[in-house]
Amino acid sequence: MRVSLSICGNATIYATGARPDLKAGGLNFSDRREPPRREDGIMDVYGMAEFDAHEAIHIFHNKSLGLRFIVAIHNTTRGPAVGGCRMWNYPSFGDALGDALRLSRGMTYKAALADLPYGGGKSVLIGDVSLKSPAVLGAVGEAVESLAGQYTISDDLGVSLADVAVIAASTRFACAPRLPDGTTIPATAFGVFHGIRATALHVFGTDDIGRRSVAVQGLGAVGSKLCEYLADAGATLFVADLDPERVTAAVRRWNARPMAVEEILFAAVDILAPCALGGILNAGTIGRLRCRAIAGAANNQLATPENGVALAARGITYAPDFVINAGGLIEVAHLRSGVFEMDGVLDDCRRIFDRTLNILGRAAASGEDPSSVAERFARERLPAKRRAVETALDASS
Ligand code: NAD
Q1: 67 phi and psi, to 5 degrees?
Q2: Which residue puts its alpha carbon closest to atom 30 of ligand 1?
Q3: CATH code, 187-376
Q4: I want to staple 56 with a disulfide (CB 3.0 to 4.6 A). Which of 61, 66, 73, 393 is the partner?
């Protein structure tokens, strides 16, 4: 079943928290981050801090599979929404919905700043990754297909390119970029690396990464490839991951210095590169940071916009995530354009250097924090009316 919250049309807002069938499916509304409720008990999605005038929110449920899947579509004025799917064992439905809303808004900004003809959307699959199965992924595909191209799904934390390939069997709207020989382009890590170079130039007056110490939090698909680029450029690396084998590999391959998961954020380094989860820059962490700058891949690093202001007040330069981690979306754009070559994708990712430098420079000149500047630039690039765009039916790969 699907519960749709359509903001553009005749809005039908179901009292999702009050629906016995959803409760029976295992959604737990009693955990720590409940969305606000109206006086009549109906969940007030509009009142959530993360809401930000989303165009649509689709909530899917399949009781027999235990599927709990949310698609959030923030803004499609530039084109149909494209964004990855995250699988995470969220403590509550409110956490999952909040994450989907924040992530989809970030995709709107990312596409706008990279000048891509896409809108912002993102999905979350609620549950531990151990629950992932071909049947669940197939059902995700069917859910995406039912949206008829409003949203194209890709990979994110907990959902790999191989998973997206399974999803693609049930929908035309799935994108798993691979070169003809089956290899992938490390577009996100490459773009983040150039964002880090620009941040270094802005803060230290040189983009020579060989003179910089960098702490990388998270050694997954993006973090490990980023370490490779940084190590090749001569950086001194500090690393942490929940998976000790990934840390051991980083120590062996790049002579990285291992740190405890609880400590990596507070490493005394030139640059902190968060490449795990979002929300890590918050009231509890900002006062303890000892880095000069932050530039990493993780989406939504700032827990709230005010945290961007707090970082600036501490003299810590923050390269907005949605500016520097656009490589994956750039890659998707190349794939959908029909020309998908390593060199072309990486050339476009290199442009993240100039974009980052521009935003950091403007923020420094105006006294605003970089995230606010980037957000304003992105919003200025959103047309008032939806562009006439064709839904890409050839999106699957
Ligand atoms: P991934 O799942 O491959 O890797 C994440 C890694 O972080 C894992 O190794 C995990 O063990 C580790 N981790 C989780 N919590 C941690 C913690 N508290 N401390 C240290 N390590 C921790 O994910 P990924 O594809 O590398 O993505 C990383 C981040 O970048 C995510 O926030 C994702 O949304 C964002 N991002 C990814 C892409 C992409 O192309 N994959 C694009 C844009 C943004």
Answers
A1: -80, 125
A2: 298
A3: 3.40.50.720
A4: 73
Cα of 363 vs centre of ligand 1, distance in Å, is: 27
Candidates 218, 221, 214; CA nearest to 199 is 214
Contact indicator for 151, 119 with CB cutoff of 8 Å: no
pLDDT value of position 31? 34
Angle between helices 342-350 and 187-204 (to 10 degrees): 30
- Judge if the beta carbon of residue 328 lies within 6 A of ligand 1: yes
Look up the CATH superfamily of 2-167: Leucine Dehydrogenase, chain A, domain 1 (3.40.50.10860)
CB 333 within 8 A of CB 118: yes
Q: Is 57 left (phi over 0), alpha (psi -120 to 50) or beta?
A: beta
Residue 34: band (very low, low, confident or very high) from pLDDT cuts 50, 70, 90: low
Residue 2 banded pLDDT, cuts 50, 70, 90:
low
Asked if residues 291 and 271 have their Cβ atoms less than 8 Å apart, the reply is yes
Write the pLDDT tens digit of every residue in 245-302.
Answer: 999 999 999 999 999 999 999 999 999 999 998 889 999 999 999 999 999 999 999 9
The domain spans of the chain are 2-167, 187-376
Q: Is the pLDDT of residue 384 over 90?
A: no
Q: How far is CA 288 from the centre of its chain?
A: 25
> Which residue, by CA, sits nearest to atom 9 of ligand 1?
220
Strands 81-88 and 119-126: parallel
Report helix, strand or coil for 152. strand
Angle 193-252-203 from CA coordinates, rounded to 5°:
30
**Does 187-376 match 2-167 at the fold level?**
yes
Q: What strands lie across the sheet with 56-62, from one edge to the other? A: 2-6, 56-62, 67-75, 119-126, 81-88, 151-154
